[in-house]
Amino acid sequence: MVSGTPSSRAIATRPLFRPAWWLANPHLSTVWGKFFRTPPSLDARVERWDTPDGDVLDIVRTHAGDDTPTFLLLHGLEGSIRSHYATGTLLQAQRRGWQANLLLFRTCNGELNRAPRSYHSGETTDLDFVVRRLLEERPGAPLVLAGVSLGANVLLKWLGEQGAGLSGHVAAATAISAPFDLARSCAHIDSGFARAYSRNFLRSLKAKALDKIRQHPGIADAGRVAAADSLWSFDDAFTSVVHGFVDAADYYFRSSSIRYLHDIRVPTLLLSARDDPFHPPQVLDDVTRIAEDNPALQLEFTSRGGHVGFVEGTHPWRASYYMEQRIVEFAMHHLPESMRGPVGAMEGDPALR
After folding, report:
1. What is the dihedral sign for C-alpha 194, 243, 225, 48?
2. Fewest Cβ atoms closer than 10 Å to its Cβ: which of 46, 161, 171, 176?
3. What order of strands is seen across the sheet that includes strand 70-74?
4. Taking the mean position of all CA atoms in its chain, how far away is CA 70?
5. Is 307 annotated in the active site?
6. pTM of the prediction?
7. Exactly one of 29, 276, 320, 334 is catalytic; which is it?
8. Which carries the bigger pLDDT value, residue 4 or residue 306?
9. What is the number of alpha carbons within 13 Å of residue 231 lying toward its C-beta?
10. CA-to-CA distance for 208 and 205, rounded, in angstroms?
11. Is the CB of residue 248 less than 8 Å from the CB of residue 240?
């Protein structure tokens, strides 16, 4: 059974998302992978790249031949290589023969970065730096991009900033569970049952922020950061201050990817669930109206799936993860025919469950 109806431009190569019947609500769909999935093993290495501002970035990389696509994944808020979807998605790409990469945002590699800044939902300079280096390393190789949650917002904002300048460089992109409107998403996750997710993020974010203030005294008020009891108040006390915004509202407005969707020219799949507990579903209606005037955007807004969930399978012990397969399948329709490979060949692979 198909959950939800995609846009008429959405590309499907098999029946669309079939939600697992045994995940009865969006919260179960959201937390299933984190708590009940054993991430697949991945043969990869970590490279450390010096950034133009004197800092470093860590990139998780897999091996591949010379004449294969390059794939880059951006993780979500406080994500890492330990995020279950990260290894699953990289393995999907690797088994297609692609050279697969995961950009670890600053502080998400288990270390405090050097510079008096961190990462945030609208910070695109690191992505721009990594993309340009990947293109230089493997000239002529098609580049495929995907972002998850916060990483999806970063990706969409960057795609809009670049506009037609990416023609001939980026073959396709996918944004999973993007917080298109940061202010509305933040207000949503800071209220009701969703506050459980907000509190979980806050524990990690506040600890890092206080370490950063000790590393660079004076960049923000440690007392305000320690007292923050919501993502909005944290972003008002730290993220906006450290990164040059007036306040949290200014940060959310200037960083929200919904403002950049009009200008995207790369074929881009937007995969989100209407029951996503992180975002109000009305935002998807606004995105749908924007997409009507931009043929580069392909919509797949399902009725179920949770936040970065999209779990399928007839039984819990045979779960599979639709979003990871969909990223690869969508991209292959925009690759040269010689690089596409057999669509759907990975479906049901027990190593990806």
Report:
1. positive
2. 46
3. 45-50, 56-61, 99-104, 70-74, 143-148, 170-176, 268-273, 297-302
4. 17
5. yes
6. 0.93
7. 276
8. 306
9. 26
10. 5
11. yes
Q: What is the pLDDT of residues 186-233, one digit of tens each?
A: 999 999 889 999 999 999 999 999 999 999 999 999 999 999 999 999
185 assigned to active site: no
pLDDT confidence of residue 120: 98
The catalytically annotated residue of 83, 307, 320, 334 is 307
Q: Residue holding tokens 């995105």?
A: 287
For residue 16, name the pLDDT band (cuts at 50, 70, 90).
Answer: confident
For the cut 90, the answer to whether the pLDDT of residue 280 exceeds it is yes
Alpha-carbon separation of residue 139 from 56, 120, 170, 185 (angstroms):
23, 29, 12, 38
The Cα angle at residue 142 between residues 140 and 145, in degrees rounded to 5: 140
In the chain the domains, ranked by start, together with CATH numbers, are 26-180+256-352 (3.40.50.1820), 182-255 (no CATH)
The H or E element containing residue 90 is helix 84-95
Integer-rounded Cα radius of gyration of the chain: 19
Q: Which is the catalytic residue, given 83, 121, 149, 185?
A: 149
pLDDT confidence band for 340 (50 / 70 / 90):
low
Strand 56-61, strand 99-104: pairing: antiparallel
Q: Does residue 90 surpass a pLDDT of 50?
A: yes
Q: What distance in Å separates the CA atoms of residue 93 and residue 182, rounded to the nearest whole number?
A: 29
C-alpha distances out from residue 303 to 89, 125, 222, 276, 280, Å: 23, 34, 41, 9, 13
Take residue 328 and report the two structure tokens written for it: 């690869």
How far apart CA 157 and CA 121 sit, in angstroms, is 9
Question: 353 pLDDT exceeds 50?
Answer: no
Amino acid at the residue 312: E
Strand positions, DSSP E, 189-324: 268-273, 297-302, 311-312, 320-321
Is 149 a catalytic site residue? Answer: yes
